[in-house]
Amino acid sequence: MKKRLPKLFSVVKVDYIRNFILKIEFSDGHINTINFESFILNSRNPMIYKYSDINLFKKYSIDDGNLIWNDYELSFSLDDLYKRKTL
C-alpha cells in the first residue's frame, strides 16, 4: 500500500545529528532522518561537492518551508525529502 502524501506540507525544523545526517520535521508531524553523505561525496557537480566541507554543509537553513543551502544553491524537493527518494 502506497503512503499518500498530505496535500500541503513543509519543513518546519531541521536538526544536525552528525556528519551529513539531518533530522527533518515536516508540518504534518512526519520526521525523517536523512544521511546526505553519499549524495554529496559522490557528486561530480562542483556546486554540490563543495558541501563535502562539513562546515558548509552545516550552514543549511529553512526558507519558506524548504531545506536549502546558500540561497537555494543546493536544495531538494519536499516530496523527495518526505519520501527519502533522492538519497
Q: Which percent range describes the beta-strand content?
A: 25-35%
Could you give the order of strands across the largest sheet? 1-2-3
* Count of all domains: 1
Distance between the termini: 22 Å
Proportion of residues in helical segments: 10-25%
Radius of gyration: 13 Å
Low-pLDDT stretches are none
The major sheet is characterized as: 3 strands, antiparallel
Question: In DSSP terms, counting alpha (H) and pi (I) runs of 4 or more, how many helices?
Answer: 4
Q: What number is the mean pLDDT?
A: 92
CATH topology name, in short, is NE0471 N-terminal domain-like
Instruction: Please give the CATH class.
Output: Alpha Beta
Class from secondary-structure proportions: alpha+beta
Order of SSEs, N→C? EEEHHHEEEH
Oligomer: single chain
Net shape: globular
CATH architecture verdict: 2-Layer Sandwich
Number of strands: 6
